[in-house]
Design goal:
The chain has a domain of 109 residues: FAD/NAD(P)-binding domain (3-Layer(bba) Sandwich). The protein is 27% helix and 24% strand. The structure holds flavin-adenine dinucleotide. The site of flavin-adenine dinucleotide (FAD) has 24 residues, from helix 1, helix 2 and strand 4.
């Protein structure tokens, strides 16, 4: 049996590294754990779903666990969160988010590509209300999109004026919404 390579995180970094390992080592056993529902999606296209420039939600997703298996013989486990690493024992503890089942998985090599999460500024009153959204993955943009359409929301405030905030505001405008973009002034 080849090397057991485990990858934590299945989007840009994790998916690329898994595919690269396969190209370098035909015998490796490669497993990717992704705590979210999707792997290998196009973060860059997420805001464009709001305006339907990207027409279908599925168009945001480039690879699935099935296509990873078929193309690269890589075992991709979504809704699977790595909870801890036992470096001495060379194994990780994984929790299946859908069932709550926990199990250990041994490794020879471990790659961490867990990315980052949006900040929710606690200093803003109401930041945890249900109609306050973040934009990081396909589930996030779907929740925002559904809410805006279901409630026929006319005015949307976008907090954060970097390129992601700008693209979200641009696409909300394209979708016929009024969006105000908030950016903290640099001191
Ligand atoms: C809306 C948006 C638009 C963007 N547009 C552009 C662009 O136009 N150009 C550009 O260059 N970049 C863009 N980016 C940035 C780019 O998407 C990121 O730089 C890139 O996704 C980072 O890849 P990553 O693999 O390091 O992390 P991520 O994409 O964040 O992936 C990490 C994954 O690891 C998973 N994870 C974390 N912890 C665990 C755990 N313990 N167990 C299992 N899984 C775990 C997370 O669920 C996550 O899905 C954009 C980002 C966003 C959000």
């Amino acid at each position: 049996m080849g090397k057991r390579v485990l990858v934590v995180g299945g989007v840009a970094g994790g998916a690329s590294v898994a595919a690269r390992v396969r190209r370098l080592d035909a015998d490796a056993s490669i497993t990717v754990f992704e705590r979210g529902e999707h792997v290998s999606f196009s973060n860059c296209s997420l805001p464009y779903y709001l305006s339907r420039t990207v027409e279908e939600k599925d168009d945001l997703v480039m690879m699935t666990p099935e296509s990873f298996k078929a193309s690269y013989d890589i075992d991709v486990r979504v809704n699977s969160e790595v909870l801890s690493i036992d470096r001495a024992g060379k194994k990780v503890l994984v929790r299946e988010r859908t069932t709550g089942r926990e199990y250990e998985e041994p490794y020879d090599d471990l790659v961490l590509s867990p990315g980052a999460s949006p900040i929710r500024p606690k200093s803003i009153p109401g930041v945890d209300l249900p109609h306050v959204f973040t934009v990081r993955n396909v589930t996030d943009i779907d929740l925002l999109d559904r809410y805006v359409r279901r409630e026929n929301a006319g005015d949307v405030v976008v907090v954060g004026g970097g390129f992601i905030g700008l693209e979200v505001a641009e696409n909300l405008k394209e979708a016929g919404k009024t969006s105000a973009l908030w950016k903290r002034r640099r001191r």
